[in-house]
Write a structure and sequence with these properties.
two-stranded antiparallel sheet, 11% strand, 142 residues, 2 domains, mainly alpha
Length: 142
């Protein structure tokens, strides 16, 4: 069996299909784990998803937000997309990056508040969200 999901992702209707196995053995346990983590920490939990362009990140987090309404109805899950904020290919070819490093993550956190486009997009989910996410990343990276 499968679960069909349709969402508006950046103005485009996207239809996705997830297997019952994936939903029941991956997504639901993940949401329950995050809810338990929230209970233990007694504060917001920030989860970041990274993958290559056009692999369905926005669709997946939108689906998880939708699924959370029935799996963990006492928790508020909010997906925040970063679509449309990509560096130009020329820039990427002229610079080097430390993959999987705190340096990149810290820079991303700084960009959330330094670049008004990021701040505006993130703060659509609540005034100060960009600042909060940036502070969380800074705290994590040390």
């Amino acid at each position: 069996m499968t679960m069909n999901y349709s969402a508006d992702i950046n103005g485009i209707t996207v239809n996705a299909t997830y297997s019952d196995t994936t939903v029941n053995e991956v997504f639901i346990p993940l949401l329950k784990h995050l809810a338990q983590l929230h209970n233990v920490k007694q504060r917001r939990i920030l989860v970041m998803l990274a993958a290559p362009p056009a692999t369905g990140k926005s669709t997946l987090v939108s689906f998880l937000e939708h699924l959370a309404q029935s799996v963990i109805p006492d928790k508020r899950v909010q997906s925040v997309g970063m679509d449309g904020f990509h560096l130009r290919q020329e820039y990427l070819l002229m610079h080097t990056f430390e993959l999987d490093g705190d340096e990149i993550l810290a820079g991303l956190g700084q960009m959330y508040v330094a670049d008004e486009r990021f701040t505006k997009n993130i703060d659509k989910h609540g005034e100060g969200t960009a600042e909060y996410v940036s502070a969380c990343i800074k705290s994590y990276c040390g």
